[in-house]
Design brief:
alpha/beta, Rossmann fold, 4-stranded parallel beta sheet, 19% strand, binds alpha-L-rhamnopyranose, Rhamnose transport system substrate-binding protein, RhaS, signal, Bact_Solute-Bind_Prot2
Length: 339
């Protein structure tokens, strides 16, 4: 889904004045200048990924409720360099807020700093930058919770022992790298009989992820499980395994969207996987962005804001707002979801 809008240059000026006049609210919902006419640019890691289509749908839902405007832009490839021109354009347009899933924790930092000094509020969601480059990070679930859930799933599916591999997104992705580091720690302490034999990167590209799956199976004939902490990777891995002799022998789990994974759960390739609700994540990030851009909150720890149908949220340490817990999908519930 793609949303476009004409962003009037005057809007930014009016918004900037509004911010000066109102200052930063205490987050009680009464300090801001209103979210009407707030302009928001949504910049996912890449376009064409159903996960981000779901988060952008949530962003649009929030914007509609708030009377704000959202435009989704983004590169085809999930690379940091490719995100920079979109950040620069958003800054030049003077949008009220930029909501971005970062392909790298630092590489887009300069561009974000420039956008912020031009008055644009920056909210990272899904994949963070280093904290100094943004006002808020809307986190889908705790990194520990996400890492633990994936290890529980794979351990359960391979009977607690054997070789596993990780098929990740792009090599610099902040979110996947944080989860992988935690999985490595936890494997060492709690899963002595499971050996992580290789980590490969499919760049959140379907074909690359598919090819990396084939290569993993070839290089590790004793492989018992593939953990893919990316919705693009897990779907490609499941598709490869579903028609190969690894089906039933090599478990595929990680983080996936129900719509992409349904057929592989139903055909027995995949037993269970996890995720949060990406629509809610985009919705929450947009509510937070609008609260910042309207001056309702400053993004300080303890600030609270109203996030529509999701209720009230509080900004935590390091400017983080937490959506919730990861959720496990399997044959008993996969039919109940549509994203
Ligand atoms: C992919 C992206 C995204 C990640 C999900 C789980 O869609 O890499 O950043 O959060 O997978």
């Amino acid at each position: 889904m793609r949303f476009t809008s004409v962003l009037a240059a005057g809007t930014a000026a009016v918004l900037a004045l509004g911010l000066t006049a109102c200052g930063s609210g205490d987050g009680g919902g009464d300090g801001g200048g209103g979210t009407d006419d707030v302009t928001i640019t949504m910049l996912p890691k890449n376009l064409g990924n159903p996960y981000f289509e779901a988060s952008t749908a949530g962003a649009q839902e929030a914007a509609d409720e708030l009377g704000a405007t959202v435009e989704e832009v983004g590169p085809d490839a999930a690379s940091p360099d490719a995100q920079v021109p979109f950040i620069n354009t958003a800054a030049q347009q003077g949008v009220g807020a930029l909501v971005v899933s970062a392909n790298d924790p630092t590489a887009i930092g300069d561009a974000l700093e420039e956008a912020r000094s031009a008055g644009t509020k920056v909210v990272t969601f899904d994949s963070d930058t280093e904290p100094q480059f943004r006002d808020l990070f809307v986190n889908q679930a705790s990194p520990e919770g996400i890492a633990d859930k994936q290890l529980e799933l794979v351990a359960d599916q391979i009977g607690g022992e054997g070789e596993i591999a990780i098929l990740s997104a792009s090599a610099n992705a902040t979110n996947q790298n944080a989860w992988i580091a935690l999985m490595e720690e936890k494997l060492a302490s709690d899963y002595p009989d499971i050996e992580l034999v290789e980590i490969v990167y499919g760049d959140d590209d379907d074909q690359t992820s598919f090819d990396k799956t084939a290569a993993l199976l070839q290089s590790h004939p004793d492989l018992k499980g593939i953990v893919s902490p990316t919705t693009v990777g897990i779907a490609a891995a499941a598709r490869y395994v579903s028609t190969s002799d690894a089906k039933g022998r090599v478990a595929v789990t990680g983080l996936g969207t129900p719509n992409q994974m349904r057929e592989y759960v139903e055909d027995g390739t995949v037993e269970a996987f996890a995720l949060w609700n990406p629509t809610d994540l985009g919705y929450l990030a947009t509510q937070a962005a609008a609260a910042l851009a309207s001056g309702d909150i400053a993004g300080e720890e303890g600030d609270t804001f109203d996030a529509g149908r999701l209720g009230e949220f509080t900004v935590g340490a390091d400017g983080e707002v937490l959506l919730g817990d990861p959720y496990v999908y399997d044959e008993t519930n996969i039919g109940d979801f549509d994203f």
